[in-house]
């Protein structure tokens, strides 16, 4: 279960301040390929009735209450899992075999910006991977107020023929490239059925380490920090954690949030039928994480809709940033936001339309709060209005206010120093980065 090391009561009452939110905590995750293909297509060498087994899996999800569960091959027996599980947040199925990806998430945390992406490359060299639209999912999970982690769930191409390995490497590269675009500056957790081993170089499983700066928890905690060079095969159920499976978990921290993996285990002995038989041909994996918010940077919640291109000023912020000028542009809606730091760094996001307005801050004046108003344009939620207020009581606004607004205030002694969100010709989604004054 999720455990927070600071009271969330005050944070739950209002969006207006991050000063009362949790600054550290922990959570656990589970990755499980649930063998949900129809029996006529694949019995997965698992005894018993698949519908009954799926119901047992859901019951065990409820009993052990992992915080974020990613499942793969959740195809034709999806309803049986959900019927016995009680996690408050769960993705809707994308369909059975041949229609859906088999990827779903059951969580104790809510999320924003959920998406499904189909693999651009597949192979039927040794199976039927092209039969169903496998791929990966993305969600920006709200672990606590102002604490967001990007979670990815994936199921890569199976098999060991040349065509399979080419497809699998392309799958993993596709996720890595997506992370580079949509998770800039963010903490990330990636897990699922990679169908890959370190001893098969052509699989390209090291791409998450080399391109995205992610750490494999198995490698870190069970293999001395060294990628395996000798193939090891796990029993099922596995009673040891030192063997490598194709089911893997990766993660990274950010300048705003430190993630630390503290525990790794194959949960096989917890997921058995009443007669002791396995429920799936895959060993489920659990990992425990601790998290801690940086003493240098925090972030607000988001306002607006998940459209446009992701941006994040966090990686470009110096160690002690202070805005010297704010610049907004707007008309009927909020077109763009920007600011200039005292060291000359300029951040600007959004389009080129609207009327521009600026506010120069004094040497001891800080941007301390921002009101955002959102509305609908062409069926999408966008930010229509911003009102900035400084520590000296000066204000700057742009756009047109609506009735759907929220105010984001920096914690006491902190200031707004940058932005993150999504933009296009206008401001779609927006949040703020805080730093000490």
From TrEMBL:
GO MF annotation list: endonuclease activity; exonuclease activity; phosphatase activity; sphingomyelin phosphodiesterase activity
Alphabetized Pfam families for the sequence: Exo_endo_phos2 (PF22669), Jacalin (PF01419)
A GO cellular component annotation in the UniProt record: cytoplasm
A biological process term (GO) from this entry: phosphatidylinositol dephosphorylation
Signal sequence region: 1-20
Keyword Metal-binding among record annotations: no
Superkingdom assignment: Eukaryota
Keyword annotations from UniProtKB, A to Z: Endonuclease, Exonuclease, Hydrolase, Nuclease, Signal
PANTHER family: SPHINGOMYELINASE DDB_G0288017, SPHINGOMYELINASE FAMILY MEMBER
Protein name, per record: Probable endonuclease/exonuclease/phosphatase family protein
Organism of this sequence: Phialocephala subalpina
């Amino acid at each position: 279960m999720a455990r927070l090391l600071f009271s969330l009561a005050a944070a739950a009452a209002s969006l207006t301040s991050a000063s009362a939110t949790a600054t550290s905590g922990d959570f656990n995750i589970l990755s499980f390929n649930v063998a949900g293909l129809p029996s006529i297509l694949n019995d997965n060498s698992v005894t018993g009735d698949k519908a009954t087994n799926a119901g047992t899996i859901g019951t065990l999800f409820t009993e052990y209450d992992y915080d974020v569960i990613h499942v793969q091959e959740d195809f034709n027996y999806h309803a049986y899992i959900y019927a016995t599980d009680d996690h408050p947040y769960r993705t809707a199925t994308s369909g059975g075999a041949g229609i859906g990806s088999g990827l779903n998430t059951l969580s104790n945390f809510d999320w924003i910006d959920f998406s499904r992406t189909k693999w651009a490359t597949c192979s039927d060299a040794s199976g039927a991977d092209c039969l169903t639209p496998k791929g990966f999912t993305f969600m920006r999970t709200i672990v606590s107020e102002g604490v967001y982690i990007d979670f990815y769930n994936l199921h890569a191409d199976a098999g060991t023929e040349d065509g399979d390995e080419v497809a699998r490497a392309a799958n993993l590269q596709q996720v890595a490239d997506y992370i580079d675009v949509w998770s800039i500056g963010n903490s990330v957790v990636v897990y699922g059925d990679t169908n890959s081993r370190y001893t098969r170089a052509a699989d390209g499983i090291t791409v998450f380490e080399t391109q995205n700066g992610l750490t494999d928890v198995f490698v870190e905690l069970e293999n001395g920090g060294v990628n395996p060079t000798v193939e090891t095969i796990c029993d099922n159920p596995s009673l040891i954690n030192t063997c490598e499976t194709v089911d893997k978990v990766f993660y990274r921290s950010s300048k705003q949030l430190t993630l630390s993996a503290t525990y790794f285990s194959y949960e096989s002995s917890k997921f058995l039928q009443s007669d002791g038989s396995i429920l799936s041909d895959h060993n489920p994996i659990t990992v425990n994480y601790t998290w801690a918010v940086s003493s240098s940077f925090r972030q607000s919640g988001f306002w607006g809709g998940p459209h446009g291109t992701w941006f994040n000023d966090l990686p470009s912020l110096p160690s002690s940033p202070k805005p010297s000028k704010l610049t907004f542009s707007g008309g009927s809606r909020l077109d763009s936001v920007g600011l200039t730091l005292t060291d000359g760094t300029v951040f600007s996001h959004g389009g080129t339309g609207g009327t521009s307005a600026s506010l120069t801050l004094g040497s001891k004046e800080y941007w301390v709060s921002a009101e955002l108003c959102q509305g609908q344009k062409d069926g999408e939620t966008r930010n229509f209005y911003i009102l900035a207020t400084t520590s000296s009581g000066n204000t700057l606004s742009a756009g047109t206010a609506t009735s759907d607004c929220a105010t984001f205030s920096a914690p006491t002694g902190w200031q707004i120093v940058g932005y993150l969100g999504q933009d296009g010709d206008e401001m779609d989604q927006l949040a703020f980065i805080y730093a000490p004054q």
